[in-house]
Here is the input.
Amino acid sequence: MNNKEESLAFLFQYRNSKLAWVVLVVALIMTASLWQLSILLVQDRTKAHFENQSQQLKTAIEERLLNYEQVLAGSAGLFAVADLIGRNDWRTYVNKLDIERYYPGIQGIGFTEKVTQEGVAEHIEKIRSEGLPNYLLSPTGSRHEYHPVVFLEPATQRNRRAFGYDAFGDPAHRKAMEMARDSGQAAMTGKVVLVQEQVDESQPGFVMYFPVYESEKTLITTDDRRAALNGFVFSAFRMNNLMDGIVGLIAPFLDIRIYDSDVIIDERLMYASNLGNLDEVYSFENSQTIEHGGKTWLLLTRTTPAFDYLASDPRPGIVLVSGILVSLLLFFVTLVLVRSKLIALANAGKYRAITEDTTNITVIIDNNGDVSYSSPSCERILGYSLTELKKQGTESVVHPDDLPVVQACYEDALQKPGTSVAVNHARIKHKDGHWMNMEGGYTAMQDVPGVYGVVVNFRDLTALKLAQTELHRLAFYDQLTGLANRQLFKDRLEHTVKTCKRRGNQAALLFLDLDGFKRINDTLGHDAGDTLLQQVADWLKGCVRDEDSVARLGGDEFTVLLSEVGSAEAAGRVASNILDKLSQRIRLKDHDVGVTVSIGIAMIPDDSDDPASLMKFADLAMYRAKEVGRNNYQFFLNSMNIRAARRMLMQEELRNAIELSQFVLHYQPKVKLDTQEVVGMEALVRWNHPDRGLVAPDQFIQLAEDSGLIHKLGEWVLRQACLQTVALGKAGFSKYVMSMNLSSKQISDPGFVELFSRVVEETGVDVSKLELELPASMLMLDIQAMMELVQSLKRLGVLVSLDDFGTGYCSLGCLSQVPIDSVKIDRLFIKGIPYDQKSGEVTNAVIALAHKLNLAVIAEGVETREQLQFLQGAHCEMAQGNLFSHALDDEQLAGYLSNLEQGQKERFIYDSGTE
Here is the structure.
């Protein structure tokens, strides 16, 4: 390593000492974090110490007040055990208590005697005779009741001022005395100035009273206590004397305030420590309440600078200084390691040029043109060791045809030091003699320590070719079946069309869609569906020639491109072969499943020579195959294109009709057959087309479902039917139930229940007067989802019926699990009664099955009296149809119901015996 590389300036450059700087920054961040953490820990400990002192202070005050209360209770008990207590007895008792020693803060313990207005003179004479010749009651004035101080020990000069003082005449004292009298417990006054105080030395104080009753009286009620009251024992307290001893022992460095209130009120300040002037200089503050003797005190404690100083801790500073020193130490240690690494790299500088990639080889050619280094991958990929490569030479391993290009790149690299000069392709000889396709480049690094030459990097293109092949497969082939995907099929179709136009031959495009695949996916799961799709793909590949193409466009849609056919009949034979092949059954998850396919065929170029049009025409033919019964094939006809155009036009008209509110509701009554009365009606939607008049739902409902417009239309029908139900109720027809048909797509919408609830709430309809008719085909879907839907609707209070019962596939097990109220027999069965024996038998069976499941039965499409008579004989509960009434608009419905209410039902209801 030269002097430049060993200098401090070179070492401190960020690109050389980046690791050291990162270590320093991280260490300083950790130091700052630990410093802040230690500060927080010290603060937490200081706060805990402060809160502990505050709590101890509160506890000490509460204990002292409780002790004073116990002293008063004992003093009151003295009157209960002695018939007569004299002044000397009281002095002896108080002296034995030694209150100055054991009860600091008490100015004295005294007794006030209850005196009536009539007994004042006698009372004064009595007390004067006991050695107090100047005894008088104060303050003067006439009162109903007096409680003058007669005993007060110790009888100091200060305390003697209180003899004869009637505290009952002071509102603050009287409130506490009355509370003690009525409760039988100790009670405290608020902030007062004791009568013993001199004007120039007055300080806040308070008095605690305890009632004394006649011993032989029974004390149960408040009136009993008031009648038996003899007086009060009391203690007078000076707050400074009470608190100083406690504060000095527990919290000498805290700023302490006590307020005669549960909030801070300056006028009610009872005590402030000698640090009270430090209002805004504190770290922590604590507020606590002390409740005793019917009073609530607010104890406010704050820290002081003296407290903070004593609680201070040097450890955060130690952590900071130590962390900085350690960070600097780590920084310099890392610099030393970096310097050692730079020296090591300089001694083996070739490693800066080596990429030990599994697909790359690296060779260094020194300034003399000899190989000085080869990577270990060189031997693995090309078979040459370093010794063998040195003997072989670089020129001998390059293909002669590629050698000029390689040499030119080498010369170019020498002219551009540090810049990589690419070799796009070169054939390099493997040790065993075969040529390998490779690409790479030259980088001149003659001045780089440890290299001092040209670095040659080459990689094997074999893996790249494989990756490109895989990318091509992913881009143009279906991942599930391995068939061509939409993009590749589109390219093949375009190529076939061009070939047909150039050669004048024919081809055919087959568009295939599996019938009932969604049901298999929903019932057996997507894994089973994927297995079926893979099997179908195998069957399709077996039905065509190698030159033909099979593709999967997505989902269950497949296409087959017959690259050359002699005629349309030949394409039809291929389609028939596919139908036969796919008629097999396959076992999926322990179920034997059969699948059929609908096929649409478009001929090339007879139908079109445009690939997009051909796909469209084949798709239209496929839909025609589904319309005529599925499991067949149909050739494209121009009429299909016209029908599709009409369908699109009608779809646009339908969209506009929803926006322009061109729909109306008609209502067909429902009749209860055993009582011959109308119990409800079914709401039927009609399209009031501006040109074609009223359009029946069978001409636009399926289109609404296919286009997704059924959601908006269904919401409109639901809202209008609810509004009509509300209107009927206001008109006096509140007993009728309104039925509404729902489509499968409406029910499959996860937000349907929320939509129904919102419409009910917005219209204010009585939900018990609504019945929702669900299609029986819903039972073929997820039974768990169906159960949850019906249960949600039932919780709202709506009736639920199953429409088109008896048609299609319906699981009895599923039917027994779904909590519906009734089933509706499809009109197809009713239509054949009574002439079609099979229709009658099926109808009887459906009614019997529904009754077994405790479901009511509704027959629709009743047109004749014979049908009505049959249904009555089969015990069908309800029916509807033109026999009773055709579908009515709003006004006609109101008239119909009015006539029924007026007793004219014979005009509408036909008895089974009517001739």
In short: The longest strand covers residues 677-689.
